[in-house]
Automatic annotation (TrEMBL):
NCBIfam families: pilus_cpaB
Sequence intervals crossing the membrane: none
UniProt name for this protein: Flp pilus assembly protein CpaB
Gene: cpaB
Entry-linked Pfam families: RcpC, SAF
Classification via InterPro entries: Pilus_assmbl_Flp-typ_CpaB, RcpC_dom, SAF
Domain of life: Bacteria
All residue ranges annotated as the SAF domain in the record: 40-101
Species classification: Bacteria, Pseudomonadati, Acidobacteriota, Terriglobia, Terriglobales
Length: 284
């Protein structure tokens, strides 16, 4: 083969390889630039953060998220520092604006109360307040049981009434109170998110009756009409009331009238017979 032809072929291969390398690098840079343009750096939690915590720089980190940015996501750490957390955050979770209290409102339970609502504390027993039964975010019904004043039917006994329905639990925990001897004891306390009118009803019921919380499905938001239940009615429904026996009235004995009769002897030839006829006064 001619040496000139080999030289031309070799130069062609070298030029083709160089052009391919240049094209590969140009395409790679464009793909990398397109991927970089599709990711956004947002603020996220550096560790698990509990409700009421005031955020600092140590609580925050940054993560790159591809695609659409979640609504309300914070892009700068300065937008989150100094604000209170209104619900628990977990490590690596993007921090959204609606999960934080407004600037200047501080932290704690007060920052998580919605506009126009109130947090009303209710003391519950150990059965209701066990961990996992009533937790923040759950929905409950509030029942009050006791002896109502001026009860027109005292035989009915204790009554139970459904005061409030579909109430959100704001927080659940323990509080230190003193017993009759003045010693500190721990009691279960649940804070409910209610309106001002509901807060008055709940406070009055807690002072004169026993409060019971009933857990409900958070998707069930309908309120059902519930009648007041009395203790006497519960036991009356289960017993069979004996019906009184009908009284037997014994009437006065009526003596039968004595019929007076008259005997007449009849002689017919040699035969004799006797016939009786009633007296005239007996037929009257």
């Amino acid at each position: 083969m001619n040496r000139k032809l080999l030289t031309v072929l070799l130069l062609a291969f070298v030029l083709a390889g160089g052009c391919s390398l240049i094209v590969y690098r140009m395409v790679g840079h464009k793909v990398a630039a397109s991927h970089a343009s599709q990711t956004t750096r947002i603020v996220a939690a550096n560790a698990d953060i509990k409700l009421g915590t005031i955020l600092t720089a140590a609580n925050l980190t940054s993560v790159d998220i591809a695609g659409a940015v979640p609504k309300g996501a914070l892009l700068k750490p300065e937008d989150a520092i100094g604000r209170g957390v209104m619900s628990n955050l977990y490590q690596g979770e993007p921090i959204l604006d609606n999960r934080l209290a407004p600037k200047g409102s501080g932290g704690g339970l007060a920052a998580s109360i919605k506009q126009g609502m109130r947090a009303c504390a209710v003391r519950v027993d150990e059965v209701v307040g066990v961990a996992g039964f009533v937790t923040p975010g759950m929905r409950v019904d509030v029942l009050a049981s006791g002896d109502p004043p001026g009860n027109p039917d005292p035989k009915s006994g204790t009554k139970v009434k459904t005061l409030l329905q579909n109430i959100e639990v704001l927080s659940a925990g323990t509080d230190i109170q003193k017993d009759a001897e003045g010693k500190p004891v721990q009691v279960r306390v649940v804070n409910l998110l209610v309106t001002p009118d509901q807060a008055e009803v709940l406070s009055l019921a807690a002072s004169h009756a026993q409060i019971q919380l009933v857990l409900r499905n958070p998707l069930d938001t309908q309120t059902a009409p519930v009648q007041t239940t009395a203790l006497g009615n519960i036991f009356a429904d289960g017993d069979q009331i004996a019906k009184p026996k009908s009284a037997v009235h014994v009437g006065a004995r009526v003596s039968k009238p004595v019929v007076r009769s008259v005997s007449v002897e009849v002689i017919n030839g040699g035969q004799r017979s006797e016939k009786k006829f009633s007296a005239p006064e007996a037929s009257e």
